[in-house]
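Example: Phosphogluconate dehydratase.
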Amino acid sequence: MTIHARIGEVTERIVERSRDTRARYLDHIRAAAEKKPTRNKLGCANLAHGFAACGPHDKDALKAGEVPNVGIVTAYNDMLSAHQPYERFPDLIRAAARESGAVAQVAGGVPAMCDGVTQGEAGMELSLFSRDVIAMGTAVALSHQMFDAALYLGICDKIVPGLVIGALSFGHLPGVFVPAGPMPSGISNDEKARVRQAYAEGKVGRAELLESESKSYHSPGTCTFYGTANSNQMLMEIMGLHLPGASFVNPNTPLRDALTRAAVKRSLEITASGNGYTPVGEILDERAFVNGVIGLHATGGSTNHTLHLVAMARTAGIRLTWHDFSDLAEVVPLLARVYPNGSADVNHFHAAGGMQYLIRELLSEGLLHEDVRTVAGTGLSGYTAEPKLGEDGSVTWVDGPTESADTNVVRGVANPFQATGGLRVLTGNLGRSVIKTSAVKPDRQIVEAPARVFHSQEGLQKAFKAGELTGDFVAVIRFQGPKANGMPELHKLTPPLGVLQDRGQRVALVTDGRMSGASGKVPAAIHVTPEAADGGPIARVRDGDIVRLDAVAGTLEVLVDAAEFAAREPVVADLSANGWGVGRDLFANFRRVVGPADEGASAL
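Written out as structure tokens, the predicted fold is:
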């Protein structure tokens, strides 16, 4: 199938825009690749340090210098349900490596924080910057230059993007991303949302809310809603860094373990020692990033990836812009409804056909680049295959589904949920922002109402509890950008605004902060840039100004006389309280040097 004209056009302009920076990046990684693994060139004391803790078999193999060595970069901790299954993975990986005549070592660990724990708390102000810390931690882990390939163990919000950025800094190394899978389904998402809103209205107490949340987040594995963590898994598969079908197999199952062992074997097959050399930096080219954006639109994925994909691409010398996101959204249909965009969770999505059906459908209409490199050694058509457990306990791949098992969850391109993608870019005199439209009803996608301005989500919650948020309004929550306080997610705004919308009020949110994959039924223009702390137009909005958010036309405007608005002095907020406590003082330099949201909000 010939690639869709718009997708080809966007890809070509990315290639042209990135010509010099991409060429420099490829020159760097190819020069590194020419050196081959440097392990055997290390001084004897250096090398002895590198294998001192190995068992006798592995030590002898590394001493002889004749076997490949796989580095494991892990984000394991047992507080994150998504990452707890990784506790078992190093032993699985080491055993699989030995079976293939190789060695595997844990090269290093990277931090992994849970945004679900820090929501609404001061620790959330470290969340976005943790992506850059993870990238640096990945580089530290691989800097020993002991490895022929790497396996990256990570799932959640900033962790996979950080691992990708770190992997790209060692882009000459082959690498496979190894997921752990979602937890089994708990209570329904509709029930979870109902209890949250009832709590916000004071109709149930904390005990009832905690019981509901505990039934939702109830076991090892990734949270089952389609937020950033599961959007990460979709991206790693559609961009060719997972083995086909690996994303949404539940943890601690025979198939999951078999997929992990297969990832080890595959990483050894694509090292520089053989004929299938496939470095990460060459897999992640312009076509792969376009495929990632298309996957994000087709599934209504996390708005966080309008930051992360841009930052990841820049590391690979690729200049991806929000304009590219916007143009691709116009031709990519929305094919999935997974909570918060629908009532199903990722287990239902996987059972209905999942990634294999989605990729097949997009390829059938020329909506993905098929001719890409992948860790599987196939083009993207190889990712329509579904993994099954063979009689000997290994993985075998069979033809994936050609029809959806549940058209309420995933559909083909002939019958999409909507004709355009789940994300839009908004522009206007308030700057640029993004909005997730896949969960917003069509009659709610345009809101024109007076502004209610706050400098924190706590301010809005206080006004809600006091009964002050009456009538139609646009909540403007500013000084939440990366320079101000690290750009926290503002999830605690969702229940009160949802309550007010359900009461019949027309409400919307405009913020220079984040809402992430949990952006729901309330229209939310987020990542507004320039941010208030940079003197952006959002800092000149006053209570009562009429704000128009139009997700259909793609505009975000304050309806104030242009000369009057330009003459206003931007409000300056006291941000000193954001500079200390729970480690925030250690990130002062990050806040000083961080770039704007539309350039990835990166401090690297």
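Residues 372 and 379 are 5 Å apart (CA to CA).
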